[in-house]
Design brief:
Layout (H helix, E strand, L loop, with lengths): L5 H27 L3 H9 L5 H18 L4 H23 L9 H20 L7
Helix pairs in contact: 1-3, 1-5, 3-4, 4-5
Pfam families: DoxX_2
Protein name: DoxX family protein
InterPro entries: DoxX
């Protein structure tokens, strides 16, 4: 096993945090504007409109937490929880492909989930004290 330097850990963590934050911010637009795909997803889950708006609000908070190193661990932890819910929603209720998106939303959810897991691992030593 190769030990990573702190500089390398920081670079990987920052890259994954920026990627995840951009995905969260990009999907916010569709949730807050009531795009038909978002409305369909949350209607299928039985939580439209409040689930859509609430999820979008949480995604905004997560994206904000991820971009600041001091709060990145917490952002990744909350992002992990949200993405577990998203992946499970796809697997159990929505299906991999939603509205002919080719599985893009599912793939993004999995990538952000994996990014959050990696950030949690990299930031573990800098997590807030309990």
């Amino acid at each position: 096993m190769v030990a990573l330097t702190q500089t390398t850990k920081n670079r990987i963590s920052t890259t994954l945090a920026v990627f995840s934050a951009l995905v969260f911010i990009q999907t916010l637009f569709f949730k807050f504007t009531g795009a038909s795909e978002s409305v369909k997803i949350f209607s299928t889950l039985g939580i439209e409109p409040w689930g859509r708006i609430g999820t979008g609000s949480v995604e905004f908070i997560i994206a904000t937490l991820l971009v600041f190193p001091a709060s990145r661990f917490i952002g990744a932890l909350v992002g992990f929880g949200l993405m577990v819910g998203a992946v499970l929603s796809h697997l159990l209720f929505l299906g991999i492909v939603v509205d002919d998106d080719g599985g893009l939303l599912f793939i993004l959810a999995v990538l952000v989930l994996l990014s959050c897991i990696t950030i949690i691992n990299l930031e573990w030593d800098r997590r807030p004290p309990t």
